[in-house]
Amino acid sequence: MYKNRIFLFVSISLIFSTLAFSQNSSTNSPYTRFGLGSISDNANGARQALGGTSIGFRSSKEINTVNPASYSAVDSLSFMFDVGLSGMYSHFSDKNGKVGKLNGNLEYITLQFPVTHFLGISAGVLPYSFSGYAFSNITKLQINSDTIKATETYNGSGTVSQIYLGMAGKFLKHFSAGINAYYMFGNISNQRTVTYSPANYNLTSQDNRISVNAFRLRYGLQYFNTINGKHDISVGVFYENKKKMHNTLYNKYNISQVADTISNNEFFDLPQTFGIGAYYSINKRLTAGVDFSFQQWQNANFFGKTDSLTNRWKASAGIEYIPNPGSYRYTDRLRYRIGLNISNSYYDINGKSMPINLGISAGLGIPMPKSNSILNASFEYGKIGNSSYMSENYFKLTVSATINEFWFFKRKL
Fold first, then answer.
1. What 3-state class would DSSP assign to 118?
2. Residue pLDDT, tens place only, 306-333
3. Cα gap 120→75, rounded to integer Å
4. What is the pLDDT of residues 131-140, one digit of tens each?
5. Does residue 198 have a cis peptide bond before it, meaning omega lies within 30 degrees of 0?
6. What end-to-end distance do the CA atoms of the chain give, in Å?
7. SS3 96
8. How far apart are the C-alpha atoms of 346 and 297, rounded to whole Å?
9. How far apart are CA 66 and CA 218, in angstroms?
10. CA–CA–CA angle 383, 385, 386 (5° rounding)
11. How far is the C-alpha of 383 from the C-alpha of 139, rounded, in Å?
């Protein structure tokens, strides 16, 4: 047992190092050239099958980082860790044609353990945003009597990650309060190059690079109760105040006939963010949940402006069904999940708002034999944008393992 624990801790350390120092992009979407890229909501692999619905969720068998108040639900004898991997195929189409992209990544790793019967702690590495794209656009210009073909090429990559440490405690029997402290780090690069034909016109290019190095906090609260022994309800809220990213470095390179470099210490804002959600379960078999979250990007300072982005909201709902949680039959303990989410984008394109984004998901929770651990698989189909600019349809598969082991007890000799 001692050797197994050493091996487990070494494995966790290796995965932490991989996430911390290998900043791989998890997307190929042209839409990630706006803002800080595609923002992650940080739902674990199991909750992703329920549309990401997590704010009101609390369980002794899962780690819910979306609402830190959930950490107090941890079993007083258990140590848990959760690791998630994903693969996504995206299909893009516009007036110039169609193209498909495939990518995958290690998404997150989290762990959780009890301090007392009413206090739990969680830590891990999570994504904050992803950026990754490569596309071009061809236009024709009329200069005097010459027709010039201009090819604009856009390339971007990068990830903003976050290491977090969280704590939650129960109080007044039916309440829990928690807090997450995040250290954010990473780099995002956005490049634009314009070439002309004939080639006697000067090539121009621009490279905007953002280096993120900042701290922020998230506060969470949950109310939970069991009625008549079979009805479990929980309601949760979380809040993040508007936060300046004091250590963000903005580098801009302009190249024409002569190369110029401008390097500034810019102050970017992370938006004020809040969310509310609820879960209801009957006989611990059928569980349903709903979420709503809001990010106030419109008032956030980004590249010296407070109106270059728009507010983002997201609504989701999900259902989980377990035929018989207390049964000895393996198939009776399988977890069947479905979910739906809708959201808007936090950016405009050419002054026009983007259409509503849609995601439909389904998944399965598979208990591991003779263990409290669970293997989760979720599949999501989503749609972003439309044909007037670019339509993105994606198919995402997420696989995660929630390892739940009894560590904190004395064995009898």
1. coil
2. 777 899 999 999 999 999 988 888 899 9
3. 9
4. 888 877 777 7
5. yes
6. 15
7. coil
8. 7
9. 9
10. 100
11. 27
